[in-house]
Amino acid sequence: MENKIRFTLNFKTVEISASPLKRLLDVLREDFSLTGTKEGCGEGECGACSIIVDGELVNSCLYPVGRVEGKEVLTIEGFRSTPEFEVLRESFEEAGAVQCGFCTPGMIMAAEFLLRKYPHPTEEQIRKGISGNLCRCTGYDMIVKAIKLASERGDGLW
């Protein structure tokens, strides 16, 4: 059974007819062609599908689309239009925190969530903040450096 579900997606009001139990990840990728949100494990363990819903970081592979009724959803595609994204992008590039790139959209969303909460995070807060996002390439040190750099460069944005 399909329901009409209305929500804000990347700053625009949208409506979709879908089963309320369909994974938000699938709706984003299949119905809205927003493929920046990746499916890694499909079990909420890797963070590749991380997005922000009403200010909270969530794994879209575990989030039923019916739960976004009336909420604000931010994906990497929407976040790309913000000044905060530019600071994070430049910092990730400079620190060498992007290698294969598969985890990067989810990692950037986790970094955005973290910086909203802690504009000047400690290394411990950064490591804890990205602990739900797995990366097989970088060893995390470059990602931690990138987030620290972004917090310094983006002073006042978060």
Q: What does this protein structure show overall?
A:
The chain is α+β, with helices and mostly antiparallel strands. The protein folds into 2 domains: 3-77, Roll (Ubiquitin-like (UB roll)); 83-153, Orthogonal Bundle (DNA polymerase, domain 1), CATH 1.10.150.120. 37% of the residues lie in helices and 16% in strands. It has 6 helices and 5 strands, in the order ββαβββααααα. A 5-stranded mixed beta sheet has the order 2-1-5-3-4, with helices on both faces. α3 (83-95) packs across α6. The longest helix has 14 residues, at 104-117. The mean pLDDT is 97.
Offer a quick outline of the entry.
Helix content is about 35%, strand content about 15%. The chain is of the alpha+beta class and about 160 residues long. It has a five-stranded mixed β-sheet with strand order 2-1-5-3-4, with helices on both faces.
